[in-house]
Amino acid sequence: MSKFIVTGGAGFIGSHLVDFLLSQKHEVIAIDNLTTGNISNLKQASKYSTFRFLKSDLKAVDYGTLLEKGDTIMHLAATVGVKKVCEETLETFDNNFQGTQILLDAAVKKDCQFLFTSTSEVYGDKKEAMKETDYSQMYVTHGGRCAYTLSKFCGEFLCLAYHEKYNLKVVITRLFNTIGARQRPEYGMVVPKFVESTILKNPITVFDDGKQTRSFCDVSDTVSALSALIQADHTNGEIFNIGNSEPVEILELAEYILSINQSDTAIEFQPLPDGRDQNKDIKDRCPSLDKIFDYINWKPKYHWTEAVKRTNDYYLSVLSPNNSDSIN
Questions:
Q1: How many CA within 13 A on the CB side of residue 54?
Q2: Number of C-alpha atoms within 13 angstroms, CB side, residue 282?
Q3: How confident is the model at residue 323 (pLDDT cuts 50, 70, 90)?
Q4: Considering only CA atoms, which of 78, 80, 101 is closest in space to residue 32?
Q5: Which active-site residues does the annotation give?
Q6: Residue 274 located in a structural domain
Q7: Per DSSP, what are the bridge partners of residue 214?
Q8: Which of 3, 19, 21, 240 is the most buried (most CB within 10 A)?
Q9: CATH code at 59?
Q10: Is residue 326 part of a domain?
């Protein structure tokens, strides 16, 4: 049994990763300050004797006593959500960058393995499938969401620098849109926002013309990839895309959600908000999965329509009159 430390462990992807690792008979410590995470996400995990939760900011943890030689750190903690990132740019960069450096220093001292979750946004705006060898492009002139992108890209640099200088085992993953149960809509996550609007019979807001594309990967597929990558020997020092390779237009996504709910909810088109206007938004985003398939034979199990349907079914159950749980 190996020990895993999952930062952001009460968050959307983090809590699913915690559940997955526990199901694989590992010991897991989840760290989360609950700023955007939710302790209710760890209901299933709390049933395991091999699980422990630590409510803390990453800067306040005593890693000298927490970590042991050979532990694995899965670093998912970050300021997330387009709305939150655009409103809190300095906090976003500081939180994401400093937290990563603190953890890398701790990993070196205890000879730990380290997985870093970066973002597809480092690729910028490209129509073709994005490959790990592509140049990065970032809009940095007028702030906005670039605080998130730059902090993640700097985190990638740190990981590779620590790998080269200290021979630390690191794996970098660039996540494309991951969806599923527990994802919260209030920070601008498009699928839960659309589903919530449909179920509550509020108009769905589609920005611009809705022709921008994203690729949606079920969270169960994402966490299986994260686990497999860090546990493989030959992934050390490498960068991998994780996502679904089929692009979907946002308008098509909205129409699909309406159709599976048999809803006549209106779609309202609005201009891009501040922080995403003036060409600061990414128009298209789709990964090449050739590298991750070559290394660990991974590809997503769920088609994007299945992933959206599974997310939709979760919110139908949560928002039902007989359910006291909250998606917030």
A1: 18
A2: 28
A3: low
A4: 78
A5: 148
A6: no
A7: 248
A8: 21
A9: 3.40.50.720
A10: no
